[in-house]
Design goal:
About 40% of the residues lie in helices and about 25% in strands. It contains five helices and five strands. A five-stranded mixed β-sheet has the order 1-3-2-4-5, with helices on both faces.
Length: about 120
């Protein structure tokens, strides 16, 4: 899990097809328990996993509209597609990531809404 600046994180989200963002706080015991499990779940994949500390970078709360920690946000083609906070359903998160990884070609949103 990479710890980057907010600007670098936003750039990777915009460039990447599928990105997992983990937001935490330093004194959060739940955060410290969840992060290793998330790393372990996706260590054998090429999923970019980014981490931001909301204490060190306070503007993440406003940027991502997160009011509690930990928070896991999943982005696909620069758009947020899934969010979990505080109570993490690991099975559901894994299923969602696997479903997005199974998509072979990028979604063209213009084609979805035109006849």
């Amino acid at each position: 899990m990479k710890n980057l600046s907010l600007a670098d994180t936003l750039a990777i989200i915009e460039e990447g097809s599928l990105v997992l963002l983990y937001l935490s706080m330093p004194n959060c015991s739940v955060c410290h328990a969840v992060q290793p499990r998330i790393k372990q779940m996706f260590e054998d994949t090429d999923l970019p996993m980014l981490a931001l500390d909301a204490f060190e970078v306070p503007e993440v709360a406003g940027t991502f509209q997160v009011m509690t920690a930990p928070a896991i946000l999943v982005f696909y083609q620069g758009k947020e597609v899934h969010r979990q906070a505080r109570f993490i359903d690991f099975d559901r998160l894994q299923m969602i990531i696997q479903n997005y990884q199974a998509i072979t070609e990028p979604t063209n949103y213009t084609d979805l809404f035109t006849n």
